[in-house]
Amino acid sequence: MKHRVLLLGLVLQAATVLAIEEKELPEKYRVWLSEEVPYIITPTERQVFLTLTNDKDREFFMAAFWAQRDPTPGTPTNELKDEHYRRIAYANTYFIDAPMKGWRTDRGRIYVILGPPKTVERFEETLSTNPVEAWFYLGKTEFGFPSGFNVMFIRKHGIGEYKLYHPGSDGPAAIMRAYRGDYTNREKVYEDLKQIDAVLAEYSLSLLLGAREDRLGAAISSEMLLKNIATYPFKLIDPKYAEKITKYKTQIETDYSLSYVECRYMTRLTRAPSGMIFLNYAVVPKTLSIDQYEKTYYTSFKIYGKLEDESGRTVHEFTKNVPLEFDEATLNLVKSNSLCVTDMIPVVPGSYKFTLLVKNTVSKEFSDLEARIVVPGRDAGLFLLEPVLSEAIKSDAGGLRPFLLGDAAPELRPQATFLRGSSLTATFQTVGDAEGCSITAEIVKDAAVVASAGKPLSEIARNGSYSLPLPTAEMPAGDYAVKFSLSRPGGGGAVSIQTLPFTISPAAGVPQPWVYSKVVPLDKAYVYDLIVADEYSRKGDDTAAYAAYEDGVARFPAVSDFKIGFARLLLQKKDHERVVAMLAPLVPTGDIKTPEGFLYLATAQQATNRFAEAVENYSRYTAQHGTDYRILNAIGDCYLATGQKEQAIKIYKSSLEIYGDQPALKSRLAQLGAGG
After folding, report:
1. pLDDT value, residue 212
2. What is the pTM for the complete model shown?
3. Of all helices (H) and strands (E), which one includes residue 433?
4. What is the helix (H) or strand (E) element at residue 656, kind and residue range?
């Protein structure tokens, strides 16, 4: 039997699509936006909705809109949605004192936003006063409301709609009817109203019950209360999700419907012993849902990552599944300290935008991160990689894992918040020749340097990294930044600088997240070499890609993916014989796992007059990839080259059935006597 355990955890960017006018929407969506949710939709959500260009996206958005407001996600009922429409129906039924639907009236608006009042006091019309209603609410102080307050409505002159009462602009004079005194003398009007109805007179001054303010202060506080009521629905959700679901709609299924969860994250570059640079990331969702099956607790993440260069070209992308199981002891740690998911990818030199989408497949929630990454090249000179701040460091020399700096595995704090009294350490690496260099760290608060530390690198060296103690133990709670400067011997100023923000918490304890990280054994590290070769290839750096693939073929002869990737570059150089020699032996052993491998081999075999073998491998390609008219033409050419004219004609005609706009092929068929 399954049980769900919900672990509650610890200005819109400019739209890239021009928004349409509300009146231009199809009727269904215009009604939804202007008549069903106008009081509760945030300006951000409204703006995003108006940028959507088709009904499918609008339906997707509307489902997400209500999912964000669902107090019991995972159940078939959305109580908030049901209550919202009940309030609209109530307003349309009972607030009918104006030539408009009840939800549009002032009373209808307040009722839809705040719901039914705790009590309603009705002050009936008299010869001296207009009819008044005072709705009393218990305030939600966490949203800035007083503990109790009134919202008042007045029917001026005793006819028409009940209008919202403003103590400042209306005042007691608006309540009085046929008043013979001086309306501008508010004090006198109040005293006269008090003689008629002392309670109503008191209410007329302030909506805040028991407020101990002067008349002007009470009026201002009342007006602020009314403004707070109008924006109250906007405080119930974070509208960022609206932008996120629009951005990631191709990666998010509608059953995620759609719960965007903010996350804390950190990214760092690290250098492996081989010299390869890795981009490490850590993600801590603010909320986490975990399922239970018997005595096992589990959750699962699906992670989509993309690395784009400055031109918008995708250099690397990946999808990973991260299933996690916990025993009860680990579950309790995760409950109290949250969960941190980490991983890493190799990156070649360049400037990139890194985007990550993390989906919890159990709760149907998703989070994202976006970061700018600069990876130094060999010609960048001396470069300081961004340090990792931590309260503790473990030694780890086995395999490759995220956030491993040489043999140092710092305790991760993606939120960069540390316990008061902690002695922090900065662990870092460099790229380039750092012989004789030194590091200084200046800790800054409110633009002033409050502490500093510095050492020659030789004095703080570890195996593959450096660790600099920071003088933080005596620092008071607050927000800080630490500026690291790497300098060469002999002075001359810093050659590389990194600055990190951090916080010292006044709390008695700071949660340390339970960290998931996957260790890659060194004998499996070739997967990273393969990614590096592919990244160079996608960047269009064929020289670096050629060298990386050739090196991979030599170092990992049993890994066919290097040979297949290398074959593509060899074909560009028309080195067909080398492609055949490299790939042909992989066919009988079944080591060509992708259709592209058969395509590259067939292309090289055709170019070297191995036509029968080429036909076999073109056929293997189409069996895996699907039929392509260009491949059929190549097969036809092979048949024709070996004198199999009728077979070639048959294949050519099949190609024309797939794509008829091939005048050259039609001409060839005519020459073969098979035109028409």
Report:
1. 54
2. 0.71
3. none
4. helix 645-658
CA distances from 225 to 133, 157, 219, 615 (A): 17, 26, 10, 79
Three-state SS for 139-203 is CCHHHCCCCEEEEEEECHHHCCCCEECCCCCCHHHHHECCCCCCCCCHHHHHHHHHHHCHHHHHH
- Asked if 47 and 15 touch (Cβ cutoff 8 Å), the reply is yes
| C-beta of residue 530 within 8 angstroms of C-beta of residue 502 | no
Would you state the pLDDT for residue 15? 36
CA distance to 8, 105, 110, 119, 382, per residue, from 149 (Å): 31, 20, 13, 11, 64
What's the pLDDT at 3? 41
Rounded distance, CA 32 to CA 461, Å?
63
Which helix (H) or strand (E) segment is 310 a member of?
none
Please tell me the predicted confidence (pLDDT) of residue 16.
39
β-strands 430-431, 478-487 pairing: unpaired
Domain 523-671, what architecture?
Alpha Horseshoe (1.25)
The four Cα atoms 513, 518, 522, 527 give a dihedral, to 10 degrees, of -130
Copy the structure tokens of residue 403: 């956030």
- Strand intervals (E) in 361-456: 365-375, 383-384, 388-390, 393-395, 408-410, 417-419, 425-428, 430-431, 438-445, 448-456
Q: Domain locations in the chain?
A: 117-233, 261-516, 523-671
Q: Which pLDDT score is estimated for 676?
A: 54
Task: Tell me which residue of 313, 326, 152 sits closest to 229, measured CA to CA.
Answer: 152
- Write down the pLDDT at residue 8: 30
The pLDDT of residue 162 is: 95
d(CA 154, CA 164): 7
Please report which helix (H) or strand (E) contains residue 411, including its range.
none
Q: What is the DSSP string of 356-370?
A: EEEEETTTTEEEEEE
Q: Which amino acid is at 640?
A: L
Direct distance between the N- and C-terminal alpha carbons of the chain, in angstroms, rounded to an integer: 68
- How confident is the chain (676 residues) per 10-residue block, as mean pLDDT? 36 42 90 96 93 88 89 83 96 90 96 96 92 93 90 90 93 86 84 93 88 74 94 89 74 57 90 94 85 82 92 93 87 84 95 91 81 88 95 84 93 92 95 94 96 96 96 95 93 88 89 85 89 96 96 95 96 96 96 94 97 96 92 96 95 93 93 79
Element (H, E) at 351: strand 350-360
What integer pLDDT is reported at residue 19 of this predicted model? 60
Count of Cβ atoms closer than 10 Å to residue 635 Cβ: 26
Q: What is the 3-state secondary structure (H, E, C) of 501-565?
A: EEEEECCCCCCCCEEECCCECHHHCHHHHHHHHHHHHHHCCHHHHHHHHHHHHHHCCCCHHHHHH
pLDDT reported for residue 251: 64
For the structural domain made of 261-516, what CATH number should be given?
2.60.40.2550
Single-letter amino acid, residue 240: K
Q: ∠450-456-457 over CA atoms, to 5°?
A: 110
- Indicate the DSSP class of residue 74: T
